[in-house]
Amino acid sequence: MSTLNKTATVPAPREGAGHTGPLLEVKDLHVEFHTRDGVAKAVNGVNYSVNAGETLAVLGESGSGKSVTAQAIMGILDMPPGRIPKGEILFRGEDMLKMSDEERRKIRGRKIAMIFQDALSSLNPVLSVGYQLGEMFRVHQGLSKKDATRKAIELMDKVKIPAAKARVSDYPHQFSGGMRQRIMIAMALALEPDLIIADEPTTALDVTVQAQVMDLLAELQREYNMGLILITHDLGVVADVADKIAVMYAGRIVEQAPVHELYARPAHPYTRGLLDSIPRLDQKGQELYAIKGLPPNLLKVPTGCAFNPRCPKATDLCRTEIPALVPVTEQDGADLPGRKSACHFWKETIHG
Amino acid sequence: MPDVTKTATAVEDAVAPPSATEPKGRHKPEKARSLWGDAWADLRRNPYFLVSSVLIAFLLLVSAWPSLFTSASPTTGDLVKHFLGKPELGNIGSEGWFGYDQQGRSVYARLIYGTRASIIVGVCVTAIVTIVGGLMGMIAGYFGGAWDAILSRITDIFFGIPFLLGAMVVLQAFTERTVWVVVGALAFLGWTQMARVMRGAVITVKQADYVHAAKALGAGTTRILFRHILPNAMAPLIVVATIALGGYISAEATLSYLGLGLASPTVSWGVDISTAVDQIRVAPHVLLWPSIMLSLTVLAFIMLGEAVRNALDPKLR
Amino acid sequence: MADFTNDEAAVAAALDVPVQRGEPILQVRNLQKHFPLTQGILFKKQVGAVKAVDGVSFDLYQGETLGIVGESGCGKSTVAKLLMNLERATAGEVFYKGQDITKLSGRALKAVRRNIQMVFQDPYTSLNPRMTVGDIIGETFDIHPEVAPKGDRRRKVQELLDVVGLNPEYINRYPHQFSGGQRQRIGIARGLALNPEIIICDEPVSALDVSVQAQVINLMEKLQDEFNLSYIFIAHDLSIVRHISDRVGVMYLGKLAEIGTDSEIYDHPTHPYTQALLSAVPVPDPQARANRDRIILTGDVPSPANPPSGCRFRTRCWKAQEKCSTEQPVLAIPERFRGLDTLAAHESACHFAEERDVVHSG
Lengths: 352, 317, 362
Description:
The complex is a heterotrimer of chains A (352), B (317) and C (362).
Chain A: H1 4-7, E1 24-35, E2 38-50, E3 55-59, H2 66-74, E4 82-91, E5 94-95, H3 101-107, E6 112-115, H4 119-122, H5 129-141, H6 145-158, H7 164-167, H8 177-189, E7 195-199, H9 207-224, E8 227-232, H10 235-241, E9 244-249, E10 252-258, H11 259-264, H12 269-276, H13 316-320, E11 326-329, E12 335-341, H14 346-351
Parallel strand pairs in A: 3-8, 3-9, 6-7, 7-8
Antiparallel strand pairs in A: 1-2, 1-4, 4-5, 9-10, 10-12, 11-12
Chain B: H1 10-15, H2 35-44, H3 47-64, H4 107-143, H5 145-160, H6 163-172, H7 179-206, H8 209-216, H9 221-257, H10 269-276, H11 284-312
Helix pairs in contact in B: 2-11, 3-4, 3-11, 4-5, 4-7, 4-9, 4-11, 5-7, 6-7, 7-9, 9-10, 9-11, 10-11
Chain C: H1 8-14, E1 24-39, E2 45-61, E3 65-69, H2 76-83, E4 91-96, E5 99-100, H3 106-115, E6 116-119, H4 133-143, H5 153-163, H6 180-192, E7 198-202, H7 210-227, E8 230-235, H8 238-244, E9 247-252, E10 255-261, H9 262-267, H10 272-280, H11 286-290, H12 322-326, E11 347-348
Parallel strand pairs in C: 3-8, 3-9, 6-7, 7-8
Antiparallel strand pairs in C: 1-2, 1-4, 4-5, 9-10, 10-11
């Protein structure tokens, strides 16, 4: 593997380039949790894919299964109580769920890295950040302590931490929230992975810092030509950086679309409801549109379309039959590439 | 700190809230479930709890009415049976099955009557240290400042005294060491642990928003302490107290063994172990039976404590 | 303004006088809260102070919603606690109907609490998990028995549940049996129970899912009309604050940077911090986003224990000059806008205040 300063200008050629097709593909993934109140179906058949250099945003509220899917990809799901009864997670065409623990561990960190919401609890408080960053190189690449520290400083420069050299031996609590999140990003980047999964990376940060961190992440992704899965509940954050969006509800993807089209013409009542329920910054507005009812209880997901009890368009069909995720087309039947909706009445929703 | 606090883990993310999905009006008969009720439901299904509680119930019964279990006297010996100590294995069910001790007293009767001393010491010491330590911890934790500084330093001083060594020194001062003297000595040194646990729990709970909410409504200190703080800070105290109870019982036995706790004519397992050691080669069974009883009792309380911990631990909920 | 008297009954009586719509109901003057930093175990020695709130003044008018926005650590939540008397102010006054309430205690404070209530941020920690919903809301009547006679309380609690859109039959349930949005409704019902005039909301929807946020915001607006409430709405989400507020104050490091009507602040901001804050808000509209003016601030918020001299924002400000480090700007209508008929003429604490529209595209 090439060193960081070499890759600074030219994207490194990727290993396993022989594989054509998406970098990561999730196929019909199911995850359930066995609790004492019953079986919670957290993920119910999710399909999505990410290419190198592409950003997929997975949007959903708490309980939508967006984080659980990511944890299943990373292989950090607590099992038990979690269980994956069905599905495939293909990384460069190979099913990670069928791999041995050893093979998976080799992928984790080196090929797929993860950034968490809470940087403070993800970093070890008793080790300096330089040590923790350098550890990646010492363990995975067998570098000496001195070289590892040099690399750690390079990484800290890369994520734009001011005075990296002076701060390399500082401890996590000595950094501000935004700086800690940068350290997390540096750690994820250390081994130049092919794919980064960022789970609510800016949720815990202030607005002014959020923008800095999001910009950094997008810039590095372009530079390294990585795939990025961005998991978030914030429709605003997504709008800035994503190429395509998958909206999740009750463990299923209900809509998939390129970012601009989703905001301009949602094809699922849930997406439309979400967009309408956000107040605007540039005008005062009237009473907010509110999606009625409550997010679903995963122990008792409604029959048919899970959104039906909250949907203004629901009919008897919605209460009995689960809508499939089908391609969405223009009114005249012309293709809308990359667009799919899991609504019986997507036509009325997007065109009506 | 973050304003959007969604630190929910995967599992919580997936199963929270196990609440009403049903819209208003179409209500389902979901029953009110208090946290104590949930903990109790958990406990009832825990085999450790079942085993230990049956054992403890039995021990309590024995210590309350020992005469229900034996008609023999623990203190009058029949010297004819002196050193006929070997258990009569053929005689299962009879008192002779446990054998007789050096002075010809029934080992079985002494086991039965010795239970009371252990249980009284365990239960009373625990009750005193929980109330005293809990109160001290609550005052230190809630009022903070000078209260905390003074009470915590006193706690630290007591905590610095080695428990058994301290108890030995205290007991030396008494010529007549009844059960109540032993209880007093152990309680005198044991409350610090409870005070520390309680102080920590109270400090955590008092920062909760519901305490602020009660203050904002104008609730007085008494109401806040006993309605809001105590019920939420009690769980760790209960767990520690249950486990400590077993410890106090074994402390009493240890002290009695060393000749600094209870002494004849008081009947106690510790006293019996102490006298039996002298005849360990001739009559090992005299040592064996009280040792088994002691271990079982301590084990029962530790098991109960573990079961209660599992039921009350909010992380598992 | 009336003098502070020690006659608690008189104070209590004075608080029952209604305030006309449009009159100030709450006047905050130079409010300060410094948390001492101490060293030592038994004999503590003060070695400094965290100036969480350092001289904040504003008025709340009857029937309006005043939004207070700012980033974490700016002191907005401490302001809420000071207004509620959950923390004692280091200096400054809060006049409620002319009475300074920062130094009240006992019966007079209890009387004030009937009229000023609070809704908390986290619906998971703001309800006592060991009490039923009925007990949580009903407790207010135990504390203030004059509000509802004993036999009437259960019915009153059920009424309140109905008002906030919960099934009154849920009265015997425990908080963990409800979802986040439902819990926040319970918190609101508790705040309403005493029929207060002012409700201080500290991030009331930030812990809720997007689809539930809108429900709670609508409920709060409905209740405001129904019960003639005045709100102080503290939040970090600028879009929600604009939606619900009549006037907005922007806080930075313990001080107000700018205050004005929603249109003055959002459409005609003059303080650089407000402009940066607004421009950083991610907007769920990629088209508009591309054309918007974006200001990305460098660095982090300085520590409130050791704030910069002069203007507190100068360390991150692109306009900062010598004057900013020596002279503290006061919160007033900037000279250049004074007397002009423009929405830019509102209070802004900047030496070099100028208008810049960062919200509208194009």
